[in-house]
Structures are given as structure tokens and as C-alpha cells.
Design brief:
about 0% strand
Length: about 70
């Protein structure tokens, strides 16, 4: 039972970390795009922020975390 509790906890934390990583990577690509437009290099395609994937992962992460919070020690 303890293994399930820790698995759900780390799974939820992992999903939140992945959603954060997606937004950080998309922000990095946006900055690279702006730098490419400023310089003489060939412009990169306009990056798209993946808000839906990040929000979906964050909302899905709350399920296991709420299950763990509701269990007794």
C-alpha cells in the first residue's frame, strides 16, 4: 500500500514537472525565435506555446495527488 502511495505521489509530481518543462522549453524556443529575427540568420518558424498540453497534464496530476491526500498514513 505504501508503494502505491509513493507511486501516485511521484507520478503526480512528475506530471506537474513535465508540464512546467513544456512551458519552459516553449519559452526558450520563443526567445531563440526573437534572437533569430534580430540577427542576420535565417528566421526560424514561429513556435507555438503548448498551453493545452501543460494545462491538461497539470489537471491530470491533481487526481493522484488528491487520492494520496485522502488516504490515511
Amino acid at each position: 500500500m505504501l508503494f502505491l502511495k509513493y507511486s501516485l505521489t511521484w507520478g503526480g509530481i512528475g506530471m506537474i514537472a513535465m508540464a512546467t518543462g513544456i512551458l519552459i522549453y516553449d519559452s526558450y524556443r520563443e526567445i531563440q525565435h526573437e534572437h533569430a529575427l534580430d540577427g542576420d540568420g535565417t528566421p526560424l518558424p514561429q513556435p507555438r506555446m503548448q498551453w493545452r498540453a501543460s494545462v491538461a497534464l497539470t489537471l491530470l496530476a491533481w487526481g493522484p495527488l488528491l487520492l494520496v491526500a485522502g488516504t490515511a498514513a
